[in-house]
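Researcher: Can you fold this with iron/sulfur cluster in place?
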Amino acid sequence: MTGSVRERVSRVLEPHALEWGLAPLASLPIADREEKIRAWVADGLHGTMDWLARSIESRIRPDDQWPWARSVLVVKLPYDLPAAVAPGSRPEVAGYARGRDYHYRLDGLLKAIRSGLEAEFPGLTTFQFCDDQHLPEVELAVLAGLGWRGRNTLLVTRKGSAFHLGGLLLSLDGVDVPPLHPDHCGSCTACMDACPTGAFLQPGRIDASRCLSHWNIEDRHTTENVAARAARTEVFGCDICQRACPWNRRILTENDLPGRWPASWEEWVDLCRPGGGFQSLFTKTPLRRAGRHKMLRNLLRALWNTDATRAAALARRALETETYPELVEWIRARLESAPTPPGAAGLPDPASERERDPA
Ligand code: B12
Ligand code: SF4
Ligand code: SF4
């Protein structure tokens, strides 16, 4: 039990080989943030995420919600950021979602860190978070000196931004204030320029309702919006603004979907049909949370933007087995508004197939 609080925390963290930061919670700046967060919600920039609007108080002042908390530990869990594929060439899933759900991975790591800290600091109270609590994670990571907030609103470091954040609120007193990381965005606006939906209204201010990631993960409805119209390849999440960032240039990886995953639009659509195996293939991955209905909508909508003929053929195939009322209604409406020339799809037209072979 010797050394400063930071040194003792550092000894506990060492075996985990993670990048981390620690800061007193009282050093979280409030006034400017509060104004921006309130304005963000008041302007409706949270899209369909009503839970975000309802939870702004604890995002502004976490110490009201967790009054015993004195400090915060934030860790980074890196993931692979794949290079771009040709738009529309195949369904694209954001890099972070391709492996085992990061919530499980972070959960295990944080539990181990927590036990270590509790042994080092007897009587310590902790509260674990990883994208699952009403906490301002990027802001806490900035506070802990882990990086700077990029114009794309994410935490960026000189090693890029492809990592998840998680951490612990701690009842630990005596934590010194770490230096803030310098901002290295400079005059760059690459993320803002690359966004296909113009979701960044100002540097650091996102209209989530325009973001592809909001549309294809969070939005349960089939309503048309700018993101639905702009989707080309992205069917789960979106890596475009991160890929464009010069700080990520050196970490971009090969872009191969996991071997067991389908590759073509047709195979993906079949997987998302009832009984097609969606739940079992994606168990324990972030895709499972989206569910097959949303994925089917995402696939058909994105394909409609690049190859309407192929999309309509696949939509008709999906209609043969689809039972989810909102989806059925939406597919029918789209087929009426965007019909396809018969036989031009390269796929058998299920309706005419049935006429030929009533069995
Ligand atoms: C809701 C949410 C989303 C929403 C909204 C995104 C957003 N930027 O707010 C959607 C679904 C769009 C989304 C998408 C993604 N997300 Co997300 N998301 C979250 C979540 C759950 C909450 C974020 C939040 O509170 N937003 C609300 C706003 C109000 O909060 P804020 O950004 O802190 O607020 C500041 C700005 O709005 C700004 N601001 C507001 N108005 C104005 C005006 C001006 C003039 C200025 C300058 C600033 C400004 O000031 C506010 C205060 O500082 C966090 C986890 C968490 N609990 O923090 C993950 C989180 C931010 N997401 C993450 C990831 C990985 C993503 C994606 C990359 C996933 C993907 N590949 O598809 C994309 C990236 C899109 C993007 N560029 O933001 C990671 C980011 C890791 C990192 N490196 O920073 C987090 C931290 C989750 C995690 N634990 O790993 N996400
Ligand atoms: S994730 Fe995609 S759609 Fe969302 S802000 Fe970034 S580039 Fe735009
Ligand atoms: S792309 Fe440029 S502006 Fe955007 S976060 Fe990266 S460095 Fe900052």
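Model: Folded with iron/sulfur cluster in place. The first helix runs from residue 5 to 13.
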